[in-house]
Amino acid sequence: MLEQARERTTRFQQDLKAANIDIAILTDESSIAYLAGFWGYLSVEFGRPTFLVVRPDEAPIVITPLMESEMVSAMTWVDNIMTWEDSGANRWENVLARAIGSEKGAVTGTVAVETDVMPALVRNWFDDQLKGVALKNVAPVLGAMRMIKSPEEIIVMQQAGEIAGAMMQAAEGA
């Protein structure tokens, strides 16, 4: 499945280029799993955001808490994993700023996020740190990709349905 995630990311990068999007910053767990191939980390609901930064012509970057980075690096195909810490100079806000170039005031071009699922914690950072940068919604680009399922995805969906059916039968019997 990791090779499929890599291929999906390559296609996503092509779609970003076609949509004139210079950088996509993803925070949604399912989108990150779809493209980078990892899941199961403590997420933003615990105040611990993880990001996938994708540019059309560069290797993607994962930004994740230091304490989860070993798990993430074992699960993903993405090589560039930047870590953040709960305090000090390596807080997530500073690491994200370095990854996208905003600490130098270098964020230019079109920045895209998943506007409907962006955590308030992250949105507040964007509003404070990237004043004047209009955020484009990248969800339609990613959604168009996710609509078509690969044969492998269909098999996983069938297996999940079989498990759910077995669970319902067991519950009915209880």
Question: Would you kindly provide a written description of the structure presented here, covering whatever features stand out?
Answer:
With 174 residues, the protein is of the alpha/beta class. Helices cover 48% and strands 14% of the residues. The chain contains seven helices and six strands; from the N terminus they run H-E-H-E-E-H-E-H-E-H-E-H-H. It has helices spanning 2-18, 29-36, 69-75, 92-100, 120-129, 139-147, 151-173; strands at residues 23-26, 51-54, 61-65, 80-84, 111-113, 135-137. Strands 4-3-2-1-5-6 form a six-stranded mixed β-sheet, sandwiched between helices. Strand 5 (111-113), helix 5 (120-129) and strand 6 form a beta-alpha-beta unit. The model has no long low-confidence stretch (mean pLDDT 89).
Secondary structure topology:
Layout: H1 2-18, E1 23-26, H2 29-36, E2 51-54, E3 61-65, H3 69-75, E4 80-84, H4 92-100, E5 111-113, H5 120-129, E6 135-137, H6 139-147, H7 151-173
Helix pairs in contact: 1-2
How do the helices and strands follow one another from N- to C-terminus? Answer: HEHEEHEHEHEHH
Shape, per Cα inertia axes: globular
Q: Largest sheet, described in full?
A: 6 strands, mixed
Q: What structural category characterises the helix and strand content? A: alpha/beta
Compute the number of helices. 7
What is the residue-averaged pLDDT? Answer: 89
Rounded to an integer in angstroms, the radius of gyration calculated over CA atoms is 18 Å
- The strand line-up of the biggest sheet is 4-3-2-1-5-6
Question: What is the distance, rounded to the nearest whole angstrom, between the alpha carbons of the first and last residues?
Answer: 36 Å
Low-confidence stretches: none
Count the strands?
A: 6
